[in-house]
Design goal:
About 25% of the residues lie in helices and about 25% in strands. A hairpin with a 4-residue loop joins strand 9 and strand 10. The protein has about 230 residues and is an alpha/beta fold. The chain has one domain: Class I glutamine amidotransferase (GATase) domain (Rossmann fold), CATH 3.40.50. The protein starts with a strand and ends with a helix. The strands form two sheets. A nine-stranded mixed beta sheet has the order 2-1-3-4-11-10-9-6-7, sandwiched between helices. Strands 5-8 form a two-stranded antiparallel ribbon. The chain has five helices and eleven strands; from the N terminus they run βαββαβαββαβββββα. The chain is globular.
Amino acid sequence: MKRIGITTSDTNFPNYPNWIAGDGVEVVLLSYIEKNTHDFDDCDGFVLTGGVDLHPKFYQNTRVDYPHTTVFNESRDLFERQVFDFACQQNKPVLAICRGLQLINVALGGTLIQDLQENGFENHRKGPEGDREHKIEVKPGTLLAKISGTLSGFVNSAHHQGLDQIADELKVSAYSEDGVVEAIEYKDANKPFLLAVQWHPERMKIPISNLAFSQNIRSAFIEAILNQ
């Protein structure tokens, strides 16, 4: 039985293990509170989940009073960096969601837009009735294009930050219509599976796009783990 390590989050966490478990894999909860780094060795792949903003100091920014600032959790930031660093060292597949996408870009030397609307983008935050929805365009020839089988579609949206400078090792594989980075992956196709998305595939309810941008991603991630 293959095991997937999922980093714990303080909001909506059950969605992640409920979505990923099954099909020959079981879930290992990786808690920034318990700091169970001893469980890393037992994991065949890793999911970095959504949650609060990364502390700006991790992307060399001193501003902490930007719009929609949340309470930072540096303990979680540091723990998830350990998770990602371990995955890289051991060549393990990684799927990153929302905050996870931002953490990977920062971990590899990239930076963040602290608030999208403040910088002229549309509102990507969760609305009063739940996640927003918007269209994305997928770049041809990317891993995401291969996985999704389409070059456009709709995803859910519940974030106020986005990627600014992209880390050198990464490339953008999808944008929103207003130019926000929606997915990244390694430039080097010979590296282990890495897909990071700004939306939440674990809770998508958009019927047309659910298969392409949710279930297809899950299936490809699990296949990468099973084929190691």
